[in-house]
Amino acid sequence: MEMMDRFNAVALNLLRIMAGVLFVPHGAQKLFGMFGASPAELLSRQVAGVIECFGGLAIVLGLLTRPVAFVASGLMASAYFMVHVYEGFWPIVNDGELPVLYCFVFLFLAAHGGGNFSIDGLFRERRRKMW
Hints:
Elements: H1 2-32, H2 43-61, H3 65-84, H4 91-94, H5 97-112, H6 119-130
Helix pairs in contact: 1-2, 1-5, 2-3, 3-5
């Protein structure tokens, strides 16, 4: 069973890192006009850009993973219901697969944390050794 535990730990860390890496550019588009987009003018989109860009970076690093992932999950749920659902309920119809997938990946990370290869894991290990 030890081999499966190692695989699970590696898979969790890879999921966290890749989800964060792929999330950051969405915020960079909104905040800085990168990747062929113009910067967001609406305050709500700027707030979303901050959560996506800096929250994604925090998730990559595994810093405050649970609360940041929870907020990011809520952002993606609201994005789906505020933007995509008006084109039809099903994500395949309304081009909402990405927000739904991010929502549930971040919800998983909020429940499970950042894993051992994270800043959160480093602090957890230090606390454990102190006691």
